[in-house]
Write a structure and sequence with these properties.
With about 525 residues, the protein is of the alpha/beta class. The chain has 18 helices and 16 strands. The chain folds into four domains: about 5-280, Aldolase class I (TIM Barrel); about 295-365, no CATH class; about 370-375 and about 460-525, Double Stranded RNA Binding Domain (2-Layer Sandwich); about 395-450, Double Stranded RNA Binding Domain (2-Layer Sandwich).
Length: about 525
């Protein structure tokens, strides 16, 4: 199979998605990770369009990339300007980027109604813009904007815009499915038509407005496209761009194309996906194909039983190939096999024992009352070890009291008093906090840190509250999920109660007890 080049536009097209914002340091970090992943082109932005992009391109001059080429993005010249005097083209040339990607109009509707010029004049704009950039000694990729819509409306004119770019010296041409409304069979046919007519490498750039961004990209490759544009996690305007993580994995694992420098790089795909989500300050979608946390997660007991015998029974590929892992989830749908498989992750062998059946019934009862262990595996490990007699609590609660005092200037004071027994000694502490849960956490820590100094190194990473039965109004049951962090390790715990403070306390205590079990020698087995 021939090689397909990967062109990442996360830092330009991806940044145009609603709510997406990266700092300059974030941009540099992503460039380095994409280069390490082995993508061929990184479209870094539109030089001159905003101060951040100007700063970013200046910083990129000092980056020594191993594999990727930096591309600067912009438009063809304005119809009223000559190419040499056009500010957009001059900024592109001044960016220092070795590759310039410019877009032009290939749909006659846009030529007449958006640019307000004749079809013939548009061809001249394309030709002169490409030629001028080639004279600056750059690799030029011509992005044919709205090409598929233009071809469907007026195929000969759409092709003439590509010929204009090719005649002017463009190194390659990318067909842009800008509105995202095409279907794979249309994209495949039109791409094949273009390849028969244009003697240049052809690329494809798809959006996801009809849910076909990835499928359309793969269809174009089937037709002979040699370059694919997209964004990490499918970030982008409206419904987003074609998801490069899925495209890369599909091309490499399903279609047999040479993608990235090798298998070792493909195994970094999940890490890159999570990094981009984190820097975009977005939750990482667990349902993303290949790279999501649930991509290889199994919940139903029948599924778990099957994958324990042969993972291929319910997994279309090996998760390790893309840097992901198999996960066994626990719920009311779990079976005995799920409990045994999950315990194995904790280095506990329950095979042939009666314990799994008892734990399974307990899990189902707890799930029925509102508990959920999918994001709270630390709570589940504690539950198993307690059932096996392999864990003893680090302290015993005698009681706590929380007072919230509202004062005149709308501020509030939250005070928690807690009484616990540690090593047979009864201790009491009082602390204030930004809220009642924070006050309770501080009071508990004030007592426990004297006995378990390791607690000082544990921090709260996330805190989520969900109302389980909203029809009960203010008496509704609440589920609290807490993520805690110690060094590089992060774990989740859960609590459920009609009282949000009680639910928070349950999750908080599980988090602390898990820390003690792992790092303070509280496990007995």
């Amino acid at each position: 199979m021939p090689r397909v080049l990967i062109y990442d536009t996360t830092l330009r097209d991806g940044r145009q998605g609603a709510g997406i914002a990266f700092g300059t340091h974030d941009l540099i970090t992503i460039v380095r990770r994409l280069d390490a992943l082995g993508v061929d082109y990184i479209e870094a932005g539109w030089p001159g369009s905003n101060p951040r992009d100007v700063e970013f391109f200046n910083l990129l001059r000092h980056e020594r990339l191993v594999h990727a080429k930096i591309a600067a993005f912009g438009s063809t010249r304005h119809p009223r300007n000559s190419a040499g005097d056009d500010p957009v083209l001059r900024c592109l040339a001044a960016s220092g980027a070795p590759v310039i990607t410019i877009f032009g109009k290939s749909w006659d509707l846009h030529v007449r109604e958006v640019l307000g010029i004749t079809e013939k004049e548009n061809l001249r704009v394309i030709r002169e813009s490409v030629a001028w950039l080639k004279d600056q000694g750059r690799e030029v990729i011509y992005d044919a904007e709205h090409f598929f819509d233009g071809y469907r409306a007026h195929p000969e004119y759409a092709l003439s815009t590509l010929r204009a770019a090719a005649e002017a010296g463009a190194d390659s041409i990318t067909l842009c499915e800008t509105n995202g409304g095409m279907l794979p069979f249309e994209v495949e046919k039109i791409t094949a038509d273009v390849i028969r007519e244009i003697a240049l490498p052809i690329g494809v750039h798809c959006h996801n407005d009809s849910g076909c961004g990835v499928a359309n990209s793969l269809a174009a490759v089937r037709a002979g496209a040699a370059l694919v544009q997209g964004t990490v996690n499918g970030l982008g305007e409206r419904c987003g761009n074609a998801n490069l993580c899925t495209i890369i994995a599909d091309l490499a694992l399903k279609m047999g194309y040479e993608i990235l420098p090798g298998p070792r790089h493909l195994a970094e795909l999940s890490d890159v996906s999570r990094l981009v989500s984190e820097l975009a300050n977005m939750p990482h979608d667990p349902s993303l194909p290949y790279v999501g946390a649930n991509a290889f997660a199994h919940k139903a007991g029948v599924h778990v039983n099957a994958v324990q015998k042969n993972a291929a029974a319910y997994e279309h590929t090996q998760p390790e190939l893309v840097g992901n892992t198999q996960r066994i989830l626990l719920s009311e749908y779990s079976g005995r096999s799920s409990i045994i498989a999950k315990a194995r992750e904790f280095n506990l062998d329950l095979e042939g024992r009666e314990i799994p059946a008892k734990i399974l019934e307990l899990v189902k009862d707890l799930e029925n009352s509102g508990f959920q262990f999918e994001g709270a595996e630390a709570s589940f490990e504690l539950l198993i070890r307690q059932a096996l007699g392999q864990f003893s609590p680090g302290f015993e609660l005698k009681g706590f009291r929380i007072i919230t005092h509202k004062i005149e200037n709308n501020d509030s004071v939250n005070e928690a008093t807690i009484k616990v027994v540690v090593n047979g000694i009864e201790e009491m502490a009082v602390a204030e906090g930004d809220g009642p849960v924070n006050a309770l956490d501080r009071a508990l820590r004030k007592v426990l840190e004297r006995f378990y100094p390791v607690l000082k190194e544990m921090s709260l990473a996330d805190y989520k509250v969900r109302i389980l039965n909203g029809n009960a109004a203010t008496a509704a049951k609440t589920r609290v999920l807490i993520e805690s962090k110690f060094g590089d390790e992060v774990w989740g715990t859960v609590g459920v109660s009609e009282n949000i403070i009680e639910a928070s306390y349950q999750a908080l205590v599980d988090s602390i007890e898990y820390l003690f079990m792992k790092y303070a020698g509280r496990a007995d087995g």
